[in-house]
Amino acid sequence: MVQPIAAPRAAVLEAVADPALYESMGSIPNIGQPQVLDSSTRDSRTDLRIRYRFVGNLSRAARAVLDPDKLTWVIALEVDTHEGRAKFTMLPDHYADRLECSGSYDFEAKGESTEQVMDGEMRVHAPVVAGLVERAIVMGLREHMVEEAKVIERFVKDETETKQEHGEQQKQEKQ
Q: Residue 168: its pLDDT value, please?
């Protein structure tokens, strides 16, 4: 999947590695407010663990194998700002025997914008409905990437404005 983000690559990578991005995210359609569980940075690498909760509606077929109240998971995210890449693993709080998902995001500069390119693998282990559930999750991931791109764009804009205001304030203090 490819998602354009209207912000420079370096700023996008900085935002994706910043726990404040996820804390500011609010509720994205079908996904509740993310909760940053852990964050650590060393050199150009930031490791984050972020809990998500599905709050949308499940199809009847999906509800046959999944309890909507148990659709929570942690994303283990490793962002390397130097490499321009993030790796992720989805760790279900429940149903770990039924769902596997991992992959990566590459952030490619496109002038003053960025393309987020997602590559991953997902497996649903559920007789009869696995394909249906996989398609629903992939559709949800696509929607999530679109909404997350908007959040990143706002976050980068706000951070840029804050830095500019701070710079102006420092100039005035020196005068």
A: 66
